[in-house]
Write a structure and sequence with these properties.
With 104 residues, this protein is mainly alpha-helical. It has 3 helices and 2 strands; from the N terminus they run ααββα. It has a domain of 39 residues. 52% of the residues lie in helices and 12% in strands. The longest helix is centred in the last third of the chain and has 22 residues. The termini are far apart.
Length: 104
């Protein structure tokens, strides 16, 4: 409760000191000058680089897994491509085993 009262008091002091409502104060941004925007080519290049880094199949991915019957997690590392292939094969095995139960 004391911490909350202290935070409210500090907020009141800061708002009284900096927020006087004076439009000529240095805290108010100057809207008369146009803002310089980054060139479109640089933003596109950054987006392309981030997308390529996200989809890189050789990127190393580590996960902590808890094996059945244990409480201690085990760290397993593999490339993103290997993880995707393992996920795909596991899904195929699951669908194949579930599909066999519906046949008569």
């Amino acid at each position: 409760m004391r911490v909350l009262i202290g935070m409210v008091a500090a907020l009141a002091i800061l708002s009284a000191a900096g927020g006087g409502g004076d439009p000529a104060s240095p805290a108010a941004p100057d809207r008369s000058a146009p803002e310089k925007a980054a060139p479109a080519s640089k933003t596109v290049d950054a987006a392309v680089v981030q997308a390529k880094a996200k989809d890189d199949p050789n990127q190393l991915v580590c996960r902590s897994e808890i094996p059945v019957g244990s409480r201690l997690p085990v760290k397993k590392c593999m490339t993103k491509g290997e993880a995707d292939m393992r996920r795909f094969e596991d899904r195929q095995d699951l669908e194949r085993s579930q599909g066999d139960t519906y046949r008569r």
